[in-house]
């Protein structure tokens, strides 16, 4: 009998389907207890009986139509990086790089490879962050001691008040074929008119391309073999094109009639630069002289400016027509008046800081006394001048020869290169409202040049 009692007690202790006394509750029991809520207390029961006589706030038995929303603050603690800024390829490269020994390279070669990687990737691979968990912290002002205070006290700029960055494309809007264009730094072979027509000199011919319609027209071709077009320039108002040739001629063409109006010969060498100032056409030649031509009269040659010892490759009139800037192969920049002084034609300013030929010359469109110039291969600098005081306001190293400078008064830029292509760039696009106002203002101007050219 005692043996039977012992077996029954042992069997009851070894059974797994009976609840274990003093054991912690199971997970499903805890979940059921949390969802059902706490047991009602005596105080809540008293309040419920006291408010039984009140009118119910809603119809009994009617379910609430209020949709439950997701909590505004997530309860998770996961750190999820920004996928758009994660550099997974860089991570793979750096992990595989550690398994391979570095080849012995010279410091110059390493710097060259680093520069190439920076240009191709847009960031330094060695310093790139693989997983970016948040945006960049705000920059601490220089000289500020407590950096953490600045970091946690400043607020991010709201999206509505942030200034939008101007987008400058890295690819051209359109590419045009330019066969047999001369690869000569000193020539000016491309010019864009106010009528949205692009003139291009291709060896011994001049072609016109309408940016509005896309039509291409051959305007002229040199008669003598061996001659070539060395410069082109549109008149500011009107539809006339000035053409400089290697045979020291300056031709004036009516584009609408496709007719040559006159041929002006006063230079002794090729005409490499042209610029208009109302009815005065200025031309610079390889001899170093600048001639003023009055296109209204038969005796067109009205003035000669002698301030350069070598070829004049850059020529620009100021927007107000008071000054003429000239750059030459003698590394000089001269600023001339529009009328001769008491001692004749003499430059008002002569800038000698450039160490190379000066072809890029451009006036500021909104401040007529500011001039920008760019030097050639030996100089590689862009300099900003105040022509009234003669002071150099700023100098920027371009790390390459400067062929042209254009202020941002127009939004399309045309460039010609030795690969025989013309590229149209959308760099400084105007606001449509301001553009319409400017077009109305230019259309309202009346010019007497159409009636006065002989």
Automatic annotation (TrEMBL):
Residues 61-72 have a biased composition (Polar residues). Pfam families: WD40_CDC20-Fz. The keyword Cell cycle applies. GO terms for molecular function: anaphase-promoting complex binding; ubiquitin ligase activator activity. InterPro entries: Cdc20/Fizzy, WD40/YVTN_repeat-like_dom_sf, WD40_CDC20-Fz, WD40_repeat_dom_sf, WD40_rpt. Keywords: Cell cycle, Cell division, Repeat, WD repeat. GO terms for cellular component: anaphase-promoting complex. Residues 15-83 are annotated as: Disordered. WD repeats lie at residues 222-263, 305-336. GO terms for biological process: anaphase-promoting complex-dependent catabolic process; cell division; positive regulation of anaphase-promoting complex-dependent catabolic process. It comes from the Eukaryota. Residues 176-431 form the CDC20/Fizzy WD40 domain. PANTHER family: CELL DIVISION CYCLE 20 CDC20 FIZZY -RELATED (PTHR19918), CELL DIVISION CYCLE PROTEIN 20 HOMOLOG (PTHR19918:SF3). Belongs to the WD repeat CDC20/Fizzy family. This is Cell division cycle 20.
């Amino acid at each position: 009998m005692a043996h039977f009692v012992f077996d029954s007690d042992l069997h009851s202790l070894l059974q797994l389907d009976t609840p274990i006394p003093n054991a912690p509750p199971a997970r499903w029991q805890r979940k059921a207890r949390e969802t059902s809520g706490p047991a009602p207390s005596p105080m809540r029961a008293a309040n419920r009986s006291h408010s039984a006589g009140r009118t119910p706030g809603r119809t009994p038995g009617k379910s609430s139509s209020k949709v439950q929303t997701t909590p505004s603050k997530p309860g998770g603690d996961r750190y999820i990086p920004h996928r758009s800024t994660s550099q997974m390829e860089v991570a793979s490269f750096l992990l595989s790089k550690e398994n391979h020994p570095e080849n012995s390279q010279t410091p110059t070669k390493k710097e060259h490879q680093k520069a190439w990687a920076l240009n191709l990737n847009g960031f330094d691979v060695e310093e790139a962050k693989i997983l970016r968990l948040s945006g960049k912290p705000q920059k601490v002002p220089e000289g500020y001691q407590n950096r953490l205070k600045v970091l946690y006290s400043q607020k991010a700029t709201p999206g509505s008040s942030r200034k939008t960055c101007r987008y400058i494309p890295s690819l051209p809007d359109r590419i045009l074929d330019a066969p047999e264009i001369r690869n000569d730094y000193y020539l000016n072979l491309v010019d864009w008119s106010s009528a949205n027509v692009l003139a291009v000199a291709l060896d011994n011919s001049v072609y016109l391309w309408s940016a509005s319609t896309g039509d291409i027209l051959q305007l002229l071709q040199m008669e003598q073999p061996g001659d070539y077009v060395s410069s082109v320039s549109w008149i500011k108002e009107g539809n006339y094109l000035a053409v400089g040739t290697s045979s020291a001629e300056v031709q004036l063409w009516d584009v609408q009639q496709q007719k040559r109006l006159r041929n002006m010969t006063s230079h002794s060498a090729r005409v490499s630069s042209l610029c208009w100032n109302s009815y005065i056409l200025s031309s610079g030649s390889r001899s170093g002289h600048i001639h003023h031509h009055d296109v209204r009269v038969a005796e067109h040659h009205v003035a000669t400016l002698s301030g350069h010892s070598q070829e004049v490759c850059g020529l620009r009139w100021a927007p107000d027509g008071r000054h003429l800037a000239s750059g030459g192969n003698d590394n000089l920049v001269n600023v001339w008046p529009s009328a001769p002084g008491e001692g004749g034609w003499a430059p008002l300013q002569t800038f000698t800081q450039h160490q190379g030929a000066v072809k890029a010359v451009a006036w500021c469109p909104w401040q007529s006394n500011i001039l920008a110039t760019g030097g050639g291969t030996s100089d590689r600098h862009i300099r900003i001048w105040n022509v009234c005081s003669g002071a150099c306001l700023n100098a920027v190293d371009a790390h390459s020869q400067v062929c042209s400078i254009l202020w941002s008064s127009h939004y399309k830029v045309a460039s010609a290169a030795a690969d025989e292509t013309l590229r149209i760039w959308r760099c400084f696009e105007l606001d449509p409202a301001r553009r319409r106002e400017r077009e109305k203002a230019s259309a309202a101007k009346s010019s007497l040049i159409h009636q006065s050219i002989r």
